[in-house]
Amino acid sequence: MEETIFIVEDDEAIFSSLKSQLEQWSFKVVGPESFHDIMKPFTKSDPQLVIMDIQLPAYDGFHWCREIRAVSNVPILFLSSRDHPMDIIMAMNMGGDDYIQKPFHMDVLLAKIQATLRRAYSYAELEDPTDELKWNGTTIDLKRCVIQRDDQEIELTKNEFFILSILVESKDEIVSRDDLIRKLWDDERFVNDNTLTVNVTRLRQKLSELGLEEAIVTKKGMGYMAITLQGKS
């Protein structure tokens, strides 16, 4: 199946270059005609990945990331010349899956695209072949990327889903940060360690809505552990 990448980039030269090179790798590349409304072309193209610049006319990339996240869990890769740490943190907190600073090497961008697509859509590689996991009185739906308790349902991003799934599959055992990075991103050379920290923090915030704020613990210098809370196994 031809995978579609939706690129939101107002620099025509960069857009054309990305389009040309990605099409050589058999991706279909589309973009909005107007930067005042990207949601209609986004919905129409139904992409498997979004590449989003931050500095855009009218509304910035953070705004459009929020709009997309309201309706879709499609992976979003931020592309920006801004290198302030807060921009990276904001990008992750908004639901971004990765962040690449301009100027960039095309080989690095391509590696990130391929790794992002693998971790977003290769559910069959999970060790548990079932459709759901039970943990602390909740159900983790592996097909829909949600965690449920009673009538309450929390939607997870692809990164949050994989982190939680990996930790729960090894519940009550420590999973090292290096192991998480290798499983999530395949090649840790292309990953900022801060990205993992931000994703775990964001996952904990969502779990707190289900009363599970203490269910993922940090083992300093070792990694993370999904614990079984007393009375909630």
Q: Using DSSP, what is the number of strands?
A: 12
Radius of gyration: 18 Å
Distance between the termini: 41 Å
**Helicity, as a percent range:** 25-40%
Label the overall shape. Answer: globular
How many domains? The number is 2
Mean pLDDT: 86
Which architecture name of the largest domain does CATH use? 3-Layer(aba) Sandwich
Main beta-sheet annotation: 5 strands, parallel
Report the order of strands and helices.
EHEHEHEHEHEEEEHEHHEE
Number of helices: 8
Given as residue ranges, the uncertain stretches (5+ residues, pLDDT < 50) are: 123-129
Under CATH, the topology of the largest domain can be stated as Rossmann fold
CATH superfamily of the largest domain: Response regulator
State the secondary-structure class.
alpha/beta
Strand order of the largest sheet: 2-1-3-4-5
Strand content: 15-25%
Offer a concise description of the structure.
With about 230 residues, the chain is an alpha/beta fold. The protein is built from eight helices and twelve strands.
Label this structure with key terms:
233 residues; alpha/beta; Rossmann fold; Arc Repressor Mutant, subunit A; 2 domains; 8 helices; 21% strand
Structural overview:
Helix 4 crosses helix 8 and helix 6 packs across helix 8 (193-208). The protein has eight helices and twelve strands. A five-stranded parallel beta sheet has the order 2-1-3-4-5, sandwiched between helices. Strands 6-7-8-9 form a four-stranded antiparallel beta sheet, covered by helices on one side. The chain is of the alpha/beta class. It has two domains: 4-121, Rossmann fold (3-Layer(aba) Sandwich); 127-226, Arc Repressor Mutant, subunit A (Orthogonal Bundle), CATH 1.10.10. Helix content is 39%, strand content 21%. A hairpin with a 2-residue loop joins strand 8 (146-149) and strand 9 (152-155). It has helices at 12-23, 39-45, 61-69, 85-93, 106-121, 158-169, 177-185, 193-208; strands spanning 4-8, 28-30, 49-53, 76-80, 98-101, 132-135, 138-141, 146-149, 152-155, 175-176, 216-219, 223-226. Residues 4-117 form the Response regulatory domain. It comes from Sporosarcina gallistercoris. Keywords: Cytoplasm, DNA-binding, Phosphoprotein, Transcription, Transcription regulation, Two-component regulatory system.
